Amino acid sequence: MFQSFYRPSGAVIAAMLASGVAACSPASDKSTSAPAVKVPASVAASGETTPSANDKAAQAVLWQAADGSNHIFGAVKRGLESYDGTGTRTGTFGTGEIEGVGLIQNFNFAGARADLLLALDTRKRTLSGFRLDPATPGAAPEPVAGGVTAGRLLEGMCAYTSGLDGRNYAFLLGSDGIIEQWQISIGKDGSLGGNLTRTLQLGTEPKFCVADAFDNSLYVTEEAVGIWQFDANPEAEVVPNLVDVHKFGNIEGEVDGLALVRDGAGHAALVAGDAGAGKLNVYDINAGHAFMGAVNLVAGGSVDAADDIGDGISFGAGLLLVADGNNEGEGANFKLARWADVDKALSLSGKLVANTNRPVEFGFKPVEASVETAPVASGGDAADDPAVWVNAKDPAKSLIIGTNKQGGLYSYGLDGAVHQYLEIGRVNNVDIRYGVKIGGETMTLVTTTNRTSKSISVLKMDEATGLMSDVADGVQATGMSDPYGMCMYQSAKTGKTYVFANDKDGETSQWELVEGAKGRVKINLVRQFEVGTTAEGCVADDETGAYYSNEEDVALWKYGAEPEDGDARTMITSVESNPALKDDLEGVSIYYGEGGTGYIVLSSQGNNSYAVLDRQAPHAYRGSFAVVAGDGTGIDGSSETDGLDVTAAPMGPAFPHGAFIAQDGRNIAPQETQNFKLVPWERIAEALGLDTPSDRPSR
Questions:
Q1: Per-residue confidence at 692, pLDDT binned at 50, 70, 90?
Q2: Structural domains of the chain, count
Q3: DSSP H helical segments within 414-511, as ranges?
């Protein structure tokens, strides 16, 4: 599961091309059209800038001030130049080997809002910033202290504001094929800085990129190969889709600059510079990146043709801005073309697919974790399921218990530090119950599914030290081929305590915890039933006697939790009925409120989110949230979550209303083995408009 980057091999690409498949990802569209090359249409350039002072033109952006005036900022490889709406140079600023520029609008400058111009110095490997005040369009860009320094040689960059959480990012393209994604922000000292959130990788050097905040897409050019699409969300999978390819697709020469065009009617187009052929290719984003044709920029009035096209392309205020490295011997400059002319030349308005619906993920509320645990010792898919032990005498010293399904069971303090580690086997899921009566003793018991011995491990929590010790009466065999998920239930009717466990084929068993040898615990089978297909996450409601099971690809089901309740069930929510859910459905837990109130929280692994439903029937859906990277905390978000837990018990000043704990399947910043993220409940409650009563039972 854990994956820091993806490198498409030459063999993979060759196989894709030979078979006509245009994507690395199984879920992607077949976006590369047949390789028949169409004759480009002609579009007259509508304007141009003054030739650069040093005969270089790398990349430019068009910035629109509050008064509607247009301004151009261009990277000219020996610094930056500014131009007014007529293309006349108005100034020079910045120094260094400036190869790329990007624009972030409405950037937060420590409470004050303005626009941020980013400039990439490839010689120093640095990203610097300039403040642009929309209210004073004639003012020179103001340098911002600080910046970001990459650890590799860089070729290009693009800026991005996430549509999911509003965070600002820069993608830095390394000459070694690695793409660094940095979160950009202003520190307490007022300087520009960044946190490296993840790395992506292509097989060879990427040169240009553009990011789409509407659907969180990142497009990158690999000059000798083609155009790739990634998910720009830093918590997303890193497998790219191939949009178009050199020679076998619609790209004749090297692919260079990229621009993104969106209009108010819901049309979306990707424009790519085909440098060798001197043309601009146009793709319909809403139609699986279908190739819509190409245009040449020819002379228009006093503006000459763009002969050396493709280096840098951008879009703004209805205009394409294209770097022209030739400019008929007058010195490199930037050409402008009206998008309306491109639209007319290719008859795009009647062909482009309109889509004004953003992905459902944009409705998810972002929350930040305040603590993350130390990473587990094992690599790969290791951390899985958490449970909370509430210290009744000192709630601030409560513990998070978490499984390492490659070898053992952890406990962590509320600061995330390891408290204990027990090498007891490949334990998958874990749960805890207090006041369990075994013989003449009352215990707090922790149980896990142990896939090494195909058993249920039973441990006793020492209430004074918070240390766990084995109290199982020998190996408590499940009889299952692969014991998987599990949870516990304590009956309000009988006082008995049970363990539910399921197998990967959907078989579920229920055992009562009873006394074996003196002071030891064994399990006694009392019930079995079939959920259907694979089910892992489960939780039992001790007060209402309900048992909830997540059938991963299907639904959350509600059963009775008593041994005599049989296999009758009710569907609470499903992947088919709720668009906010995307399989797999994984962890599930209950936030207990008074009088049967509270919430059910479940992990929607397929879109890195968590759904909240009312605990009381009819279990209305209350919304979904995502755990995102903290702004300046150094704690990344959580993604691809398997197990989760939630408690309403106060746990000291850091968690006065309880906490939500999620396994993080990627743990990307920095890239480490998996761990668990802790979110104070009030952050979730505020985001979704939920209750936060202060008086909670200790669970």
A1: confident
A2: 2
A3: none
Confidence of residue 47 (pLDDT cuts 50, 70, 90): very high
For residues 335 and 370, state if they share a domain: no
Cα-flanking dihedrals φ and ψ of residue 344, to 5°?
-65, -45
334 and 382, same domain (yes or no):
no
Q: Average the pLDDT over each of 271-275, 565-569, 653-657 and give the range with the smallest value.
A: 271-275
Residue 336: both structure tokens together: 């402008």
Pairing of strands 319-324, 279-284: unpaired
**Do 344 and 427 fall into the same domain?**
no
**Average per-residue pLDDT in the chain?**
91
For residue 667, is it within any domain?
yes
Write out pLDDT tens, residues 148-184.
Answer: 999 899 999 999 999 888 899 999 999 999 999 999 9
Q: Do residues 348 and 372 both lie within one domain? A: no
**Segments in 56-188 forming alpha helices (H):** none
Distance CA 235, CA 669 (A): 10
CA atoms within 13 A on the CB side of 439: 10
Residue 555, domain extent: 365-688
Kindly give, in sequence order, each residue whose CB lies less than 8 Å from that of residue 337, ignoring residues fewer than 6 positions away: 43, 44, 45, 46, 297, 319, 320, 322
What percentage of the chain's residues is helix, strand, coil (to nearest 5)? 5, 50, 45
CA distances from 634 to 141, 159, 365 (A): 30, 20, 20
Residue 19 domain-assigned (yes or no):
no
399 and 316 belong to one structural domain: no
Is 146 inside any structural domain?
A: yes
Q: pTM, whole model, 2 decimals?
A: 0.89
Could you read off the pLDDT of 14-31 as tens digits, one per residue?
A: 434 433 433 444 334 444
What DSSP state is assigned to residue 607? G
Match 């951008």 to its residue by tokens.
314
Q: Which helix (H) or strand (E) holds 365?
A: strand 365-368
